[in-house]
Description:
single chain; mainly beta; 4-stranded antiparallel sheet; 1 helix
Amino acid sequence: MEYRLGNSKYVKSRGETTELICPNCNKKVKFSVFSNFERRLAPKITLFDCRTVYFLVCPECASVFTVNESNGDHFKKGNKLSIGNYDFKKLEEFERKI
């Protein structure tokens, strides 16, 4: 399986969350938060649709989860409580177009 967490080569560390329970290993840990850009061609005047992809990594079991862009933006601005236990999303599998 292959997963895509943005298509930029620059991944930025955004800090750690408050203690949350990992859905995979059920341990209470501080997740590391990272961000990356995803750029796509779009039928707009700017020709590109750019969004930020935020993903969290569990330090115990190395599980990776994503969150909504709005939650990640609030976290980046300093609101540590913007990411909670119910905000985790599983990664979507990337399908190559051949």
